Amino acid sequence: MKFSSSVAAAAALTGASAHTIMTNLVSNGVVNGVGVGIRVPSYDGPITDVSTSDIACNGGPNPTTPSNVVIDVKAGSNVQTYWRHTLTSTSSDVIDSSHKGPVMAYMKKVSDATTDTGIGGGWFKISQEGYDSSTGLWAVDKLIASGGVQTIPIPSCIANGQYLLRGEIIALHSASSKNGAQFYMECAQINVTGGTGSVTPATVSLPGAYKSTDPGILFNLYVSPISYTIPGPSVFSCSGGGSNTQPPTNPTTTAPPTQQTSTTAPPTQQTSTTPPTSGTGAPLYGQCGGTGWTGATTCASGTCKATNEWIYKLELKERYGDKHREETDCESEIKIAQAAAKFSLGMVHEELIKNYASYEYSS
């Protein structure tokens, strides 16, 4: 088992170029245009505070554009959403590959899909896919491989009428710190026909369904083996209730599955903002620094070995000359974690990045 801070740091440095937007909805074989029936934002940034109303249908720092279109969708059919880096990107530019995490979809029955904000109760999850341990692929990996196509099954048993359809991606590359997970979501406006109305889904509220400390939200992507629990409610099923299951363990295609039937492996290790209860330092592979961290800031065992100094590739050598220095003690690991976390939040200080190197922590 090994934690590589160079990997984490590289993910943090990808910046805004890695963001994504749900741009199109495909229904009944018709590809609707960008922003048709979808409240697309003017900026492709994430939401990081799950307690804000922006977690429902985006907005806030990413103002959305209203649409007066409601798209007809058949109950029991599959629809597809397109995810793109920007509103003008192609299928080759979906989201940065470092932004690994789950892909989900929710629905909410509303009176008028063009005016309902989506904030509050009424949401039920209809699909999810997370980490596939048999292939080592995340749902985001599969989304990229499919050209940004998310396939979503519309339940056959729900009532007819207007709904908000919410696609969502959670990027976990900075999720080891509180509010480090990045949420990308948009709401499409649909009108469901052909539903039997035989089952009424249990619902949750947005905000409310997520907590910043949920194990699928406060999560260290870089600790192996990976065991991940998708956050939020169970997936609604017409056969009754929901399912807390993870994605299939042996999918046969790179497209998102139309149903989730596999079993969940309980997480064997999760990060926490609670300081260690014993010992004089952080355990091997344990957290020993980062934004907001109040626990141990030294390592109980192991060493921090410098592996390269790739920060010069960012042309900072020209700015700082030969001031960059190599550090080989565990305190440097803390600096790396703090710098990566702060950089991902846009708050990096020159003094932190000046001495930035790549380190591996190993026994």
List the helices and strands and how they pair.
Elements: E1 3-4, H1 5-12, E2 21-27, E3 30-31, H2 54-57, E4 71-74, E5 78-84, E6 103-109, E7 120-129, E8 131-132, E9 137-138, H3 139-145, E10 149-153, E11 161-171, E12 182-193, E13 204-206, E14 235-236, E15 242-243, E16 303-308, H4 316-320, H5 330-344, H6 350-354, E17 358-362
Parallel strand pairs: 4-12
Antiparallel strand pairs: 1-17, 2-3, 2-5, 5-10, 6-7, 6-11, 7-13, 8-9, 11-12, 14-15, 16-17
Helix pairs in contact: 1-5
Tally of contiguous helical segments: 6
Largest sheet geometry: 6 strands, mixed
Q: Which descriptor suits the 3D outline?
A: globular
Kindly report the average pLDDT value: 76
Element-by-element helix/strand order: EHEEHEEEEEEHEEEEEEEHHHE
What would CATH call the architecture of the largest domain?
A: Distorted Sandwich
- Total beta-strand segments: 17
Quickly give the structural class.
Answer: alpha+beta
